[in-house]
Amino acid sequence: MVLCFFVTIIYIYMLSPIAVVLIEAFSDSELMQFPPKGWSLRWFAAFFQHDDFLNSFRVSLVLGLSAAIISTGIGTLAAYGLVRFRRGSQAAIETLLLAPLYVPRVLIGLSLLLALSAVHFTGTFGGMLLAHVLITLPYVIRTVSVSLHGVDPSVEEAARSLGATPLQSFVRVTLPLVRSGLVAGAIFAFIISFSDIYLALFISGPQTVTLPLRMFHFMEWEQSPLVAAVSAVQVVLILALLLVAEKAVGFLKAGRL
Amino acid sequence: MAPRRRPLEGARLISLGPALVVIAVVLIAPTALMLLYSFWRYESGRITDYTFTFENYVRLLTDAFYLKVIWETVELGLVVTVITLLLGYPLAYFLARTRSRFKHVLTYLVFMPLMISLVVRVYGWIVILGHQGAINSFLVGFGFLDRPFRFLYTSHAVVIGLIEVLLPFMVMPLLSAIEKIDPHVEEAARALSATRLQTFLRVTLPLSTPGIISGCLMVFSLTITAYALPALLGGAKVKMISALAYDSMLVSYNWPFGATIGIVMIVVSSAIVYFYLRTMSRIQR
């Protein structure tokens, strides 16, 4: 069918940048040529010897993990509050909590630059962490909410009628049941934080140059396949995490029946 | 079982509290500060002397240079939105109607690139469109061109890159809308001897309008606020509003003016998002 042909072209168009980057990472040349004239792992070696990039990789990892943990904690609580305690102000609160999804990142970065400098907090890890928690929160809330909708409230009531405090019931009954949403949310939070460029552009400092930001500045001035190698490592990392997320959701769904 | 209202209130506060505090402190307060800054006078050196003025808004909305940038940004937004719609609709239709067992994988493939950092994808386009990139190697290697064509650092490169990055945002609401159309309606039209084309034009297309509107609003909003991709693929030639905002904040340190651009952008994008969410909820209905 004509449609299938057209759709295939569109898929090629959509996936070619990522494919090209993965291939270019193995190029032997100093220039960005495609297709590569020779093959080698030299750019991966260069990446692992490049202090700046390694440092940024570490920063992004630590930032991503921290943001994921905090976001998952706060977001799971919020999801619980949204799903279990439905009141009149429901819609307004939900809109507020999901707002970071819809405010343009550029503007979040810009306004945070103003706010952080007002309290002399610009360029700090803490400032970046706050920003990343903000943008990852809606994702956690969403995934945990979805999981939570599948949990029968009477299970929690049963626990409480058996003498558990609300806190015990939450920790020992509810949390395990929403594990899949929690894991998925945490992974998404990490990925979103790791790949952010907009916030880093505005509020990062010399100590908090994340990997995407380092790549961005590098790409403004130089054109070498080093970025391809760095990108390839990043893509593999993210794909691996997505696979874990898939497994977590799928496995637990099947196990829970 | 008697309803326990007081413990419920406390529990609700504890559960929603932290998240709401984050939103208030990291989103709402900074935005309010941005509003304040937009009304302060710029003074080089101190950034502002905190006197109240409208001059930032006047400058942004009447100066010919800024109006030109605004217009070009809107123009780019419209071009990207239209082409993304033309490409995204067939894709969404295919995904909605296909009975292939790879449907989930194919749908996943559309949205998976969103998880890969924008910078990585832009680099991919630089490699494809570059001087010795994929396209030029093909064209020169096979003799179609004598010398490599300059694709990069033009608005065309920006358009190509933006469309690729934003296609998933167009496909998402379209897919939702088309899937909600009962296939029996289309079958009924065919049974009444309409051709496939007529069925599509007079049944499917109109019924998918909320999806079209939602997708266009989201893509347009994301295009006019884009910074990273136009900066890397368009270079200094392609200046969009966000680039002006970035320059104001981090190059010339004219924070009041940067804040003004920010407020104008927030007002515009809030309006767009409002209509987007309203249309989306009509699809979910």
Helix content of chain A: over 70%
- Which secondary-structure class do the elements of chain B indicate? mainly alpha
The first-level CATH class of chain A is given as Mainly Alpha
| Mean pLDDT over all positions of chain A | 89
At CATH's second level, what is the architecture of chain B?
A: Orthogonal Bundle
Question: Could you tell me the radius of gyration of chain B in angstroms?
Answer: 24 Å
Instruction: Tell me the number of structural domains of chain A.
Output: 1
The parts of chain A where pLDDT drops under 50 for at least 5 residues are 251-257
Low-confidence stretches of chain B: none
Q: What gross morphology of chain B would you assign?
A: globular
> Using CB atoms under 8 Å apart, which protein chain pair has the greatest interface?
A-B, 80 and 74 residues
Overall pLDDT of chain B: 89
How many angstroms separate the termini of chain A? 39 Å
Number of separate domains of chain B: 1
**Overall strand count of chain B:** 2
Explain what this protein looks like in three dimensions.
The complex is a heterodimer of chains A (257) and B (285). Chain A has 257 residues and is mostly helical. Chain A is built from twelve helices and no strands. In chain A, helix 3 packs across helix 6, helix 3 packs across helix 11 and helix 7 packs antiparallel against helix 8. Chain B has a single domain, classed as MetI-like fold (Orthogonal Bundle), CATH 1.10.3720. Chain B contains 13 helices and two strands, in the order αββαααααααααααα. Chains A and B meet through helix 1, helix 3, helix 4, helix 5 and helix 6 of A and helix 1, helix 3, helix 4, helix 5 and helix 11 of B.
